[in-house]
């Protein structure tokens, strides 16, 4: 299994008139956690893009359990539960301290810059395999 | 069943370096569609907020089928499939013309400004009942 | 002089924990107003982009006079005070009803997709000239 | 003079279809730099808000010199050029490495949660004075 952990601090612009973080920002935090996971496994996302391999989000699911607030220090725990092949599942737990704020799941595949589905780059598959 | 339809035009700021709309914006489009649905049933969301009844998102799920681009005219078809009680399910289909771009589902409940769960305001339940 | 007017409705996601619209959204409203101005003069921005002519923002200035709130109906009055040549100045007044919320000014030039400065497309200059 | 330095890494969501960072995000980076400056001088912004003292942006000016890209490591150098009294001027230089990407300036005052102008809290004035 791949595990990765990211830290963020809530920005003022991420809050809304309920006084809490607007839920759409959690989607961006998941993205940030994926980028840092790929750094951590030695496969920076920018390198994949240079090989004309983009990794769009096919599905996103988030369950919100407790609100986040301005200036909160947030930990995003990311898991890749199974070795990705054509499709890649990523799971997340978002915490402030020990408080679980949200659970999430995303599904990904590869496309090229023209938007056509492509096979995952071999460097991606090989790197991923080494973790399972 | 409640049905509602919203029109939006993609803003440049909503695009990303893949040349398409960044997926997090779909979350905001769902919100906009809910606000307009509530206008359409005669229960503007601002009125609920004045009664200290907020309607946060508990869960969001989006399945992305086809990308949206800058300047696209987007139609969001919203459905409330069953009469909401303590919880409210909302479903969405997002189109550009006849092309289905995404399907989505959100779950909501009511809280007050202090973040405490509350019963749905009676005006909300009565209005909703009249549609089922 | 070119004049154009755009209408928007404040989205919930545009608010912040002060209970008002976060100031960064005004920057996006200016952009939206420019896009609609270009439609109005018969020169849609997407058409310019197809000719490999992009119009980035070189400078932006905004003076905030009064806050905007969720669900506000906002009018953006846009002016092009002088005939643009290599550079294009755009001015804005942002209102809710008769209340002036902000005044703004942006400066633009043309670049191509590689980021190189280019001359304005002749269709842009000719169209603009016809208004002065 | 007060000086402060903040580091950020460009998020994918901050890019646009030109392949660069959308200019509106620079406004948010300025905010983030102000928050960190206030931490650095021992006066966290959240503490001011607890005293019912908010510090909205009255004016913002940004001059864009060179684009930022996804994954760039950005340094924001912030300066408070003169001791703030009722109004507070903040200046910024935004770099990627040694490349100056933008220069900016914001103007601030204090209001309370009801939106009324207030005097700066004495703790703010005293702390600021100690730096000039």
Question: How is this structure best described in words?
Answer:
With 132 residues, chain A is α+β, with helices and mostly antiparallel strands. The first copy, chain A, has a single domain (2-129), classed as Hotdog Thioesterase (Thiol Ester Dehydrase, Chain A), CATH 3.10.129. Helix content of chain A is 23%, strand content 33%. Chain A is built from three helices and five strands; from the N terminus they run E-H-H-E-E-E-E-H. The first copy, chain A, has helices at residues 24-40, 45-50, 122-129; strands spanning 2-9, 57-64, 73-80, 88-96, 99-108. Chain A has a five-stranded antiparallel sheet, with helices on one face. In chain A, strand 4 (88-96) and strand 5 (99-108) form a beta hairpin. The radius of gyration of chain A is 15 Å and the shape is elongated. The mean pLDDT of chain A is 96.
Q: Which stretches of chain A of 5+ consecutive residues score pLDDT under 50?
A: none
Counting H and I runs of at least 4 residues, what is the number of helices of chain A? 3
Quickly count the domains of chain A: 1
- Rg of chain A (CA only): 15 Å
The order of strands across the largest sheet of chain A is 1-3-4-5-2
Helix content of chain A: 10-25%
Biggest sheet descriptor of chain A: 5 strands, antiparallel
CATH fourth-tier homologous superfamily of chain A: Hotdog Thioesterase
Query: Might you state the CATH topology name of chain A?
Result: Thiol Ester Dehydrase, Chain A
Which protein chains make the most extensive interface, counting residues with beta carbons within 8 Å of the other chain's beta carbons? A-B, 22 and 22 residues
| Structural class by sheet pairing and helices of chain A | alpha+beta
Number of strands of chain A: 5
């Amino acid at each position: 299994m791949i595990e990765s952990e990211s830290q963020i601090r809530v920005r003022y612009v991420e809050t809304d008139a309920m006084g809490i973080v607007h839920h759409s920002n959690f989607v961006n935090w998941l993205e940030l956690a994926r980028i840092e996971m790929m750094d951590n496994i030695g496969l920076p996302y920018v390198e994949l893009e240079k090989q004309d391999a983009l990794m769009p989000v096919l599905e996103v699911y988030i369950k919100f359990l407790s609100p986040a607030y301005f200036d909160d220090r947030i930990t995003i725990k990311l898991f890749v539960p199974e070795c990705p092949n054509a499709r890649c599942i990523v799971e997340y737990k978002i915490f402030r301290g020990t408080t679980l704020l949200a659970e999430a799941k995303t599904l990904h595949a590869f496309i090229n810059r023209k938007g056509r589905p492509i096979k995952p780059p071999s460097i991606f598959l090989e790197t991923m395999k080494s973790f399972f």
